[in-house]
Specification:
It holds the Pfam family Aminotran_1_2. The chain is of the alpha/beta class. It folds into two domains: 152 residues, Alpha-Beta Complex (Aspartate Aminotransferase, domain 1), CATH 3.90.1150; 241 residues, Type I PLP-dependent aspartate aminotransferase-like (Major domain) (Aspartate Aminotransferase, domain 2, 3-Layer(aba) Sandwich), CATH 3.40.640.10. The protein is 41% helix and 16% strand. It contains 13 helices and 16 strands. A hairpin with a 5-residue loop joins strand 3 and strand 4. Helix 11 runs parallel beside helix 13. The N and C termini lie far apart (48 Å). Bound molecules: pyridoxal-5'-phosphate (PLP). Pyridoxal-5'-phosphate (PLP) binds next to helix 6.
Length: 420
């Protein structure tokens, strides 16, 4: 079949689709011995799951399910949800916003596709614009979303080795602002900044000062700052450090219901100025008519009756914080006295391990572990646009610790045995 340029680009296999196929095959094999530490699935916190089932039963009992199934919403998504969320964000953070600052999409992934291609790529004046990721490594799901080639630029991080009280080998990536400012000053093709906070894959939560600095730079260069808040506050709220959420009319804040435990309901949220919201609505109208209404309808009552944020604070956060603590304890026990470093665990549910003196690449480690039915994600995939010659790019792996402690222990011990 002869595909268009779009078809050719989007049907190419790439590193991450191959990886996702591996993970899918592993899951479908029903092999009970598989140690699955790859993928981005949230865990299902039992009491949170019960609450969603209860909400579903309420929709059925109140005979409101037909509104969800039987009607198209507008192209920016379910109005009742948009109004409820705007009210909640306004009261929680004192932001000056209304439902007109909120658009929905079929998952954040779909929203990023729309946003990146609205803001970058080939422009009507013949120029070509790019999105700058100020801190690599960054979420691999962005890498192949551009309709044109060469749409993303990333900056290598500064690496700070941390002095931990317990003696645990830890480090943290810091934004190299000198390099970011140099790129912005010299490359007029940068048309947006984008950062995930908490970061997938590292669990980093860039500091409030780093956010402020990015916000100022974005305003100075008259470009938007996109903050991917898929794991952040107010929901799901997987942040284990002090961090404040910021929004203003130059920030495009992306949120999602997925990491609350509802990835199958495909609900992504964009909070932005009304121009961006209208643009998203127009693209949604062409692409999907209207986004999925099931996710928004399931949580609107919880938001209106102030039940969603307490659920996040009292159930979701402690659930993941405990898993994060278990992950750190296992790391300290299993990799004690080895040249292996853990990125400071500040948010989301990923461990990012750096094998400082690794003799094999993270891809080779992935292949060897796969032979033993242990699945992780090799780190090089997340260094979008960073040159292959940088050794660090091949020395890191991502592990999803939203699993049980014995599976995590098995996986970490298998990794240690391969790297010994
Ligand atoms: N952003 C980040 C940082 C993610 O990790 C993910 C999913 O893993 C997404 C966005 C996409 O989430 P969804 O499309 O499920 O809302």
């Amino acid at each position: 079949m002869d595909y268009s340029n779009f078809g050719t680009k989007f049907t190419q296999p790439n590193g991450i689709t191959q990886l996702m196929e591996d993970l899918g095959d592993a899951k479908n094999s029903n092999n009970p011995n598989i140690v699955m530490l790859g993928g981005g699935n949230p865990a299902l916190a039992p009491e949170v799951n019960d609450i969603f089932i209860n909400e579903l039963q309420k929709l059925v009992a109140n005979n409101t399910l037909s509104n969800v199934f039987g009607l198209y919403d507008g192209p920016t998504g379910n109005d009742a949800f948009r109004a409820a969320l705007a009210k909640q964000l306004k009261s929680e953070y004192s932001w000056d916003l209304t439902a007109n600052n909120i658009a929905l999409g079929n998952g954040s992934q779909a929203n990023f596709f729309v946003l990146f291609n609205l803001l970058a790529g080939s422009m009507p004046d013949g120029s070509h614009k790019k999105v700058l990721f100020p801190l690599a490594p960054e979420y691999v799901g962005y890498a192949d979303q551009g309709l044109t080639d060469d749409m993303f630029v990333a900056i290598k991080p500064d690496i700070e080795i941390l002095n931990t009280e317990s003696g645990s080998n830890q480090f943290k990536y810091i934004i190299n602002f000198k390099a970011v400012e140099q790129v912005l000053a010299s490359d007029s093709s940068i048309s947006a900044l984008c950062v995930s906070r908490p970061t997938n894959p590292t669990g980093n939560v860039i500091t409030d000062e780093e956010v402020q600095h990015l916000d100022l730079l974005a305003k100075q260069y008259n470009i938007p700052l996109i903050i991917d808040n898929a794991y952040g506050d107010p929901f799901p709220g997987c942040i284990y450090t002090d961090a404040n959420l910021t929004w203003n009319s130059n920030i495009i804040l992306c949120m999602s219901l997925s990491k609350l435990g509802l990835p199958g309901l495909r609900t992504g949220i964009v909070v932005a100025n009304n121009d961006i919201i209208k643009a998203i609505g127009r693209v949604n109208g062409s692409m999907v008519l209207s986004p999925n209404s099931f996710g928004p309808s399931l949580v609107t009552r919880l938001i209106n009756e102030d039940e969603l944020l307490p659920l996040c604070k009292n159930s979701v956060l402690p659930f993941y914080r405990e898993k994060a603590q278990t992950a750190m304890n296992l790391f300290d026990e299993i990799f004690a006295h080895l040249p292996v470093y853990l990125h400071k665990v500040e948010g989301a549910f990923f461990m990012w391990l750096w094998f400082k003196e690794a003799k094999i690449t993270s891809e080779q480690l992935y292949q060897k572990l796969k032979e033993q039915d242990v699945y992780i994600i090799p780190g090089h995939n997340f260094f979008i646009g960073i040159d292959d010659a940088w050794a660090h790019k091949h020395q890191c792996i991502r592990i999803n610790y939203a699993t049980d402690a014995s599976t995590l222990r098995k996986g970490l011990e298998a990794i240690k045995a391969v790297m010994a």
